[in-house]
Amino acid sequence: MSSQITVHVAGSERTVEQGTTAADLFADDRQVVVARVGGELVDLEHVLAEGDEVEPVLVTEDEGLQVLRHSCAHVLAQAVQQTFPDARLGIGPPIRDGFYYDFDVDEPFTPEDLKALEKTMQKIINSGQTFHRRPVSDDEARHELAAEPYKLELIGLKGGASEDAAEGASVEVGGSQLTIYDNRDRQGVTVWGDLCRGPHVPTTKIIANAFKLMRSAAAYWRGSEKNPQLQRVYGTAWPSKAELTAYLDRLAEAERRDHRKLGAEMDLYSFPEEVGPGLPVFHPKGAILRRTMEDYVWKRHIEAGFSYVTTPHLSKEGLFHTSGHLPYYADGMMPELDDDGQAYRIKAMNCPMHNLIYKSQQRSYRDLPLRFFEFGTVYRNEKSGVLQGLTRVRMITQDDSHSYVTREQAADEIKHLLDFVTSLLSDFGLDDYYLELSTRDETGEKKDKFIGSDEQWAEATAVLEKVAVESGLQLVPDPGGAAYYGPKISVQAKDAIGRTWQMSTIQYDFNQPERFGLEFSAADGTRQQPVMIHSAKFGSIERFIGVLVEHYAGMFPPWLAPVQVVGVPVAEDFDDYLKDVAAQLRAQGIRVELDLSDDRFPKKIRNASKSKAPFIVIVGGEDRDAGAVSFRYRDGSQKNGVPVAEAIAEITAAVRDRVQV
């Protein structure tokens, strides 16, 4: 029997000795941390077989980085049990920009504990421990993990439903075969182990010093308040120390831009405990910002051929059974309200009521496309733990639109909507974006959460994909991310510091027209079913405002700024002159505030700068005598002796032209 086998490495055929591992193939490249064999990620110690298709996975790739972070989570867990021997282990998955691990400990972790754990982790990393995969039976796992009650519970969840049963569980028991990863020292002695699906980096030395523990917080086991409360430690890990430093710098900048902090400083909105979590209230300046956005998008919808409608905030429960929301989206809806035995629901979506408007009269093919939109506030039963200022709320006001079209019109309507969306984002200063195509999960654990035939999904997906490709924008697949009733395109926009936000969405719906029995009279006299295209340009006005506050760091362009001009007199003698200038600006629709307080002039200037208004107008003796004003801009520059008419023209032009200053 030959001692050699043939494998395919990154597309090239190679002959190697039997017993060759992936590590042997990529030993000269320290950036390779795992391999993909037959499409599956495996450890580098994986022994290759005849005909294997092998690809290297670098630590700089998304999948490689996830593996690095998961390995760092294991090092954290080892450090915790080394420092707190009675600590019991929960789940430790990689997440965006890092990882976390849950622990059952007697006392919450303190900042000093995290610093001590970092030092212990560094010692473990420097010792060069190696990760080794070991398959075990369920009974063997239960025996080895007898002192780990949460791991024992996970063993009972293994297989396809693990992620539904507990967030992050799939990294430990996601497959049919249980495995334990042993951490071995340089002498080959196992010093620690954990139930884990893997894979892992070959050695802790790859983590180096490019990691940091960020914070700790309470977290209920498996996300349920009925379960014990654990301590969750969040950390981050990167391929290099330089990338870690850059990430921490981005976090510092993000903290400076935090819309919750800036919203309080600028008196835009607040989150009163008396109202409830996820239910913001908008103060006068925040309401001006919001109304400016609403007026803009209302006008844009009318120009784009939409008719404005309004619908109630609640409805009989049966409406949401018809639409499919209660059968498929019940967890996201608020609990029912009882009115003398009649169940009502606060709406989580506007589309069912728009369908009733469509159905209120006979429709002809000549009426299509028929377009409705409204500023509809809907309510989602979000868990309190995921609420995040304005970017994750329970009250969502959507510029929600629905286009009813023939199948033949669907592609043109989607293009029409995509052009609308991208021009809107550009007007708001969000010019860096790409498209994401969300499709149904066809083989995974969520495949039964989608309704409709294979043919309907294939047609809808093909139409969306064709329009997206023809747009010339980058298109990224999102398998399994579709709504239950159809696929969607979402626009992913990057803000000023490079963070990506999901903004506008366009969804193709073939299910609701069927469920509501929507029809139109076709040219040949037959009754046919329209296609329904959902679209939200802002998505959520609340969320869009939160993103804009952080994108601009509160320094909105003139057309959006709640206060566009702050007027500051050098002394009280110039108050009346400044009031007259302000009156002329207000006559042009400009939003003006005057500081006529008793504060000294330098303090007034400091306060005006903190307001983040685009223009500070200053008047003194020379200005008054010359019929002029002086400008101070947000960048600190100043322009003196500007005639009042020219000053008004500059300000109104900046607002009219939506200048990004």
TrEMBL record:
Where the record annotates domain Aminoacyl-transfer RNA synthetases class-II family profile, the positions are: 249-557
UniProt organism field: Ornithinimicrobium tianjinense
Q: Name one GO cellular component term.
A: cytoplasm
Q: Which gene encodes it?
A: thrS
The identity of this protein, by name, is: Threonine--tRNA ligase
Q: Which InterPro entries match?
A: aa-tRNA-synt_IIb, aa-tRNA-synth_II, aa-tRNA-synth_II/BPL/LPL, Anticodon-bd, Anticodon-bd_dom_sf, TGS, Thr-tRNA-ligase_IIa, Thr/Ala-tRNA-synth_IIc_edit
Protein family according to the UniProt entry:
Belongs to the class-II aminoacyl-tRNA synthetase family.
* Major location category of this protein: cytoplasm
GO biological process terms on file = threonyl-tRNA aminoacylation
